[in-house]
User: Fold this.
Amino acid sequence: MGQLGNPKLKSTTKKSILCGVALSVFAGAAIAQVAAPEAPLKLQTDYFGYAAGVSARMSYSDNINLARDGLEDDEIIASTLLTGGAIYSTPRVTAMILGDLDFSYLIDDADFAVNQNVGATSTFTAVDNWLYFDLSGSSSRQLAGDNARFSGNINAGRSQRVNVHSYNASPYIFHKFADESSMELRYRFSQVFVDGEQSLASLFRGSSLNDSLTHEVIARYDTGRKNERLRMRFTAYGSDTTEDGVDIFPDFEYRQGSLSADAQFALTQNFALSGAVGYDEIETNAATALFFDDDLLSGFFWRAGFTAQPGPRSSLRIEYGERYGDDFIDADARYQISERLTFSAAASRSFRTRAQSISTQYRTTQRQTLDFADRLREGDELSARSVIESANWYANSLNFGQAQTSGVSVSDNASVALTGAYDRTELSINGFYSDDNFGYRQIETIGGGIDLRRRMSRRLTGYGSVTYRYTDTAFDPATCQANPLIFGFDTSDPLFDPVMSCNDLAADNGVTNTLIGRLGASYNLYENASIFVEASRTERFAPNPLLEYSETNVLAGITLDF
Assistant:
């Protein structure tokens, strides 16, 4: 382990890690204290920082199975939550791990449950400015299908969730030349495992979850700043993805190759025209070929727009284009409104499996962690918060009801966020939109949330949040009748009736609106010990009364930080 050059570094990074972990829906009650303003880190040699906490809790739910009205069953739960994270950095290795591990015992059901939400990312330097190796992984419980039931209680509706484990490994060559241009040659292997035992655990028939495996190769050259006005990036990309079917469900397979050229032409110091042109060649196989036409997915693509940097604290890129047979917007924006308040937004279009999408979360984080450590060693004074929050992407996913489902989709995604951290107050406002076309079904999701924490006094902190998620799952019953295996039906069953089964499945889909409110308070008994109490209420509204449910959960406990 590296030696701490300054005792304050450990304390500072510990507070930074706690800020990131506190975003998690698991740890929201346990770590409710608002951290003091963080000092920037300054690193000249090795560094190790960590944070850890343990929380003993008791809770009560009036609808543990998230059943509809009249079928509720209450439950008392005793649990222990372990939460924390660590950062380790040397000139050759930079690594982070963050997450939560909850052990719960449902007293009335006499059932023991484990809930995990853990992620790690690391990057290794073999040869400076030449050879690197990235390794990442995560394990979490996610929804088994887009219309699966969820609430503010991690133990409610357990039959609606599955364990999702992922990892990816990527050796690559990266070299920055003296003229500021750079080149990258990368191979990435990534795999996602969904527990087979629970992959069909959904109250809605027809759901299936598959493992997913991808091989990727990337070659990229970036001109950087060698030309004062024109910056170009040339990319060659290839991938082979297989989503393995379980039991009776078929495989989804596709291969993708693309060539692209991105460009920015500066008209002024703060404004540039930007865009890209390229060509996709996509080959669908197995079940994927039933629902996508290779000729529509393949072909030339383009996007065009502008990039602006109105000030030193803001950046904006908006581009409109066409890809995978339809138009789309590709954009990202960031505005540091003040030292403590930040706005960000993004939009994109992709063709991928739902399971494989979680691996893409690490791609920017690994480069960011490496750059972060390098800049510290060069003498910069930096905050660890942004890097930690980026690595801690999974902490927010459950608030939005992140779901796993089978198939390959053309997906349009957009997100927006406003975050603020003040001396006594922390604020987070998030919104998102996604439209996933799987060929045999289409899923539209809209949601967002508000999270507020306020330190009332030196010892007392209050917090609350509101989360909303709208989902519309739609499919053509005729497609279901023609391809019942894709929808999870066993056609070998002598009692199977495709018309009746598909019509029943259609009744279990449609529009749902889920609203979760949470309110709580934490009181600091000693420097590292606090007690807390909170209550949450979940309501799902739907045109179909069979899809509706509600739950009230009350939680109290004590937390020790180390």
Q: What stands out?
A: The radius of gyration is 24 Å. The longest strand covers residues 111-127. Residues 157 and 168 are 30 Å apart (CA to CA). Confidence is low (pLDDT under 50) at residues 1-44, 198-207, 391-400.
